[in-house]
Every structure is written in structure tokens, then in C-alpha cells.
Amino acid sequence: MSGCVSRMNCSECARTGWLEDPVRRAMLCVSRPAMPCQSAWPSFLIEAVLAGFLSLGRKGRYERAGFELYAAAVAAARDPFLFAELRVPDTLDGRFDSIGLHVFLLIRRLNREAEPGPQLAQAVFDAMFSDMDLNLREMGVTDLGVGRRNKAMWEALHGRAAAYTAAWDDDAALEAALARNVWRGTTPPDGAAAALRCHARAQHAALATQDLASLRSGRVRFLPAKEVRA
To answer: pTM above 0.70?
Structure first.
């Protein structure tokens, strides 16, 4: 589970209802593991940053839906079962790869539709990189460093999406692609890559049953990881 996504303490989150907005729930910190809520940013600064994300008219018709869909993908990717039982590495790289996999599945689903499916897919992609940008800046990365790292993450996500797409129809190839990317050159624990492959296929099947009208409204449901373990 993620820490306090608002960087405020829990009582303040509860008092202000900060997390009731699903767009705000998209701002999940990929840079830290599960931990108690911490107060790292003052609330006025958080609100100033979010003002840019919530100005829907300036950035695209489906921006809000994109953030809501992305938030659901992040929540699924941060499911503790993935790390404790499927043994996805609970590291910065492992969390990035888990998010990348679930965003890939969501974008793949959206791109199979006629418009506005591809527009929603682009909105999800944009939301992901807005969130990554914010996380890098929170970690203290300079403007120049943010640009370099965003490019590296874009290339990593694109490469993984291409690998998963190419391997999708072959269980052994998909399992190998997941092992290579999620465990990054190390040997996965026995059965872990196969379990993650089954998880990805089950999520893909679940996403296929959800209609475009719901997705267009920012509503999507990923299965709890413990329900789809191999």
C-alpha cells in the first residue's frame, strides 16, 4: 500500500477530505514503499501544484478521466499481494515496472476501441508522466535532471510495451519478457514470472469486459491480485 499520497498527516487528510477527489488519488508516490503518512509538503504547496492538473479546459477533454483511470492502474500496481506473494521487487524499479505493466494493460484496452478510446489512452499516458514528473521533483531532482529521467522512463515504458505486445500471444515469450523487465537481469523466484504472466492475462480479460462509456467517465476496475494468482 502507498503512504499518504497528500504528504499531509492522516488526521488532516480526513479533516479536509483531500483524498475524496479521484484525481488527487492519482498522485500516488511511486518513489516510496508502504509507510505511515508523513508530512513532507505543506498543503498550500500541494494545492498549488494540483491547480495545474485540475485546470481541465486547458489540457484536453479527457484529462480528468485519464487521471482517474491512471489512479486505478496505480492502485492495482501497488497491491501488496503483488510484492508479498508474487514477489515483484518492492523497490523503486519494481514499483515503476508494476505501474508500467498495469498502465500498458489499460492503454492496450483503450486503444482497441474507436474514438475516444485512443484519446483516453493518450490521457492516461500523459497522466502517468505528469505524476512521474511530480515525484522526481519531490525527490529533489533538478529541472535538467527531470527532463533526462522523464526521457529515460518514456523509453523504458515504450520498450516494455513493445516487448509485451510482441510476446502477448505466446505464454513462454510473455513470461520471459516479464522476467527480463520486472526482475531486471536477475533470476526471478521460482514461479514468480509465471504468476505475474497469469495476473496480467486475467487483468487483461477483466478490462475487456468493461464498456467504453464507463472508461470514458474515468471508471475502471482491476481485479484484486489475490483473486487472480496462478
So the answer is: yes
